[in-house]
Amino acid sequence: MSMQFGLDNLITSAEQQALLRGRIAYLGHAAAVSWRLESGLDELVALFGKRLVKAFGPQHGFGAVVQDNMIETEHTIHPLHQIPVYSLYGATRKPDDHMLEDINTLVIDLQDVGTRVYTYIWTMYLALEACAGRNIRVVVLDRPNPVGGVITEGTLPDPGWYSFVCMAPIPMRHGMTIGELAVRFREMNRWDLDLHVIPMIGWKRKMLWRDTGRPWINPSPNLPTPEGCLLYPGTVMLEGTVLSEGRGTTRSLELFGHPAIEPYTMREDLVNYLNNNRLSGFVLRPVTFRPMFQKHTGEDCGGYQIHVTNPNIFQPWNTMIHILKYLYHHTNIRPFWSIQPYEYQLEGLAFDWINGTDQVRQWIESSENNK
């Protein structure tokens, strides 16, 4: 085993195992596996037996099967271990008193993707907040940021736009591991919290997922590849528009399009516009795709698949805001912005909630730098 994630370190280290005291609860999901591809829950039951008394699951469910946002999951009983599995994306998104009673340690093992709006870090945030001031130790099993820990990108959110996809001032591409985020959240809130992070061994900040040598397991249904994670800090913004972000295809969040776009005739002008704004490290490949669900179901959409050719210089967020600016001013797609609710925000535009500000949208709509 050339690299150990936090779970692997826990499995192989008696010293780390000693951090887990008393009755244990586990917050994880299907992508939280050990080096031998066994689920984190199964590994902890093998280590601690009946001391593991309950589990929690984030958005998309403990098995990571639910496609869309605002589709809630129910509490269940685990079919093998016969312990309760509480949903933290249902009637509540924060563990309540009943869920936390009679536990001494909460283990958090979630595979994040490196983008602020991905809700797993905020499920962790609310779990940390719920455990603060209680006699509950929280142990976070660290995992790689699949897009590395060197580059950050995007504006800091306005507190007036905080929501379930943004509860703290971190950029869209935040460049931190989930363990580092846990420490950051405790420090910025000054929580009275007994927090421990079981570190990775062998991970370096410059690493992308492909450098870990580990298989990619979907952390949610629409991120089937690690390449999608490289694009996600930008393509997630498409969720706030009427453009398809490729949901309903096999390469969601790696391509974009709309029935009104003819990609071949537009490509040269769009690429020149992006080049003039010093955006590089990628290729736009013209495509036609037909989503099987979500936006434009059953319609042929013209658009582009974004292929990252140099991840060291590719800027997903900056690239996408320029693509959107170009499309806003050079197509007749209207309305352009989605008016659907977004992650429990029923007022305002989804695009603004995603960015944590309305300033990005206003820049896109402005005539500044749209040639």
What keywords describe this structure?
alpha/beta, Rossmann fold, Aspartate Aminotransferase, domain 1, 2 domains, seven-stranded mixed sheet, three-stranded antiparallel sheet, 10 strands, elongated
Q: How many discrete domains?
A: 2
Sequence of strands across the biggest β-sheet: 3-4-2-1-5-6-7
SSE ordering? HHEHEEEHEHEHEHEHEEHHH
Separate helix tally? 11
* Gap between N and C termini: 52 Å
CATH homologous superfamily label of the largest domain: Uncharacterised protein PF07075, DUF1343
- Roughly what percent helix? 25-40%
CATH architecture of the largest domain: 3-Layer(aba) Sandwich
Integer-rounded radius of gyration: 21 Å
The CATH class of the largest domain: Alpha Beta
The 3D shape can be described as: elongated
Structural class: alpha/beta
Work out the strand percent.
5-15%
The CATH topology assignment of the largest domain is Rossmann fold
* Counted beta strands: 10
Give the integer mean of the pLDDT values: 96
Largest sheet: 7 strands, mixed
The parts where pLDDT drops under 50 for at least 5 residues are none
Description:
Helix 3 (40-48) links the parallel strand 1 and strand 2 (52-57). Helix content is 27%, strand content 14%. The protein has two domains: 6-212, 3-Layer(aba) Sandwich (Rossmann fold); 226-365, Aspartate Aminotransferase, domain 1 (Alpha-Beta Complex), CATH 3.90.1150.140. With 371 residues, it is an alpha/beta fold. The chain has helices spanning 6-12, 14-17, 40-48, 97-100, 120-131, 178-189, 226-235, 263-276, 316-330, 350-355, 359-365, and strands at residues 24-28, 52-57, 76-77, 84-87, 105-109, 137-141, 194-198, 255-258, 282-289, 301-308. It is elongated. The strands form two sheets. Strands 3-4-2-1-5-6-7 form a seven-stranded mixed sheet, sandwiched between helices.
